[in-house]
Amino acid sequence: MMILWIVLGAAVLAVLMFIGIFNSLVALRNQTQNAWSQIDVQLKRRYDLIPNLLEAVKGYMGHERATLENVTRARSQAMSAQSVGEKSRAEGALTDSVNKFFLVVENYPELKANQNFMALQEELRSTENKIAFARQSYNDQILFYNNKLQMFPSNVVAGCFQFKQGEYFQMDDAAHRAAPQVKF
Asked: Is residue 4 part of a domain?
């Protein structure tokens, strides 16, 4: 009779552990989805700011049409990207085109004095900082989630319910990793 109680207790304990692990995996997956939505909110804000910024400079930069078109094209590609990997690559291209745009703006002192342009530029810089913070938070959540998926005994539960590893939001272009060159 005592062995029956021990076996029954062990079975109940195993079921409770299984439920606890499953629930923690679900919670971590939901946290990664929430972190992704925070990135998405900031990216949407960025997408909304860029056309206003471009419109503010069109009168000043009529002959810089290619630069403006590159930013517009990169924005469209970033908005239509679906997976985390596609979004990472498209956002890298958008960041590059916006940075090139700001370099061209440096040649227009009257534009840099325009209050509307300056406000939009500061808003975009603020948004870029928020995107970087949200991306870091998302990648931290992905790290924690992926670790949980790979560690025993949660990897057994994850395999039973087909939990998939999360994908990091990273810039894979070497240009993003290189230090900027400053020349006087």
From this structure: no
**Would you write out the chain's pLDDT as a tens digit for each of its 184 residues?**
899 999 999 999 999 999 999 999 999 999 999 999 999 999 999 999 999 888 888 877 777 788 889 999 999 999 999 999 999 999 999 999 999 888 888 888 887 778 888 898 899 999 999 999 999 999 999 999 999 999 999 999 999 999 999 999 987 554 455 544 434 3
Quick check: 61 and 111 in contact, CB under 8 A? yes
Instruction: With H, G, I as helix, E, B as strand and everything else as coil, classify residue 180.
Output: coil
Please say whether the beta carbons of 97 and 70 come within 8 A: yes
Domain annotation covers residue 44:
yes
- pTM beyond 0.85: no
Q: For the chain, how many structural domains are there in total?
A: 1
| Residues 156 and 18: beta-carbon distance below 8 Å | no
168 occurs within a structural domain? yes
Residue 135 lies in a domain: yes
The crossing angle, in degrees rounded to 10, of helices 65-80 and 84-105 is 160
